[in-house]
Predict the structure.
Amino acid sequence: MPSSRPPRAERPLRADARRNREALLAAARDAFLGDAADAHVEEIARRAGVAIGTLYRHFETREALVEEVYRKEVDELCAAPEELLAHHAPAEALRRFLLLLVDHAAVGKGMAVALESIMATDSPVFDNARAQMTNALTRLLGAGARAGTLRDDITGPTLLRALGGICAMRATESWQAEARQITTLLHDGLRLTTPDET
């Protein structure tokens, strides 16, 4: 007869294991965003100051490590609206978040080589990232609409697609500064009132 006991929850990592995991993620991020986007796991382990076996205890494959680095970047990015809304009016919070998204696209460009390794898999990491960004934009747009300072006829998915078009400029030189300018113009088109920057 099958056991009716619920499955055991995963035990939290010990402090030393947690430090090793964070060191690996930091080393991988630095490698992917720097001049070693195609760094092998041995190089990442060396940068983190741990043995290769330690890396594989935390991440079964290089692709799993890439996924976690990218997922962490997106999680941190999409946690920003709560902090922005706590310190700024909704329209200004949206403006700042849109610029953060442009900067994130620059990070994505730096990770492009690394991310290619998971694009051919069935990983949900990109779908999840788009969903998180859409939800963050929807929250900011809703706050602005309720405050009467942002249009209420633009949705989060529409705004994300518009920003995606802007960030497609990454193939050109010095694209980021121009992308930030165009993003500011896009934001201006969403406003209903003259901004009171706070």
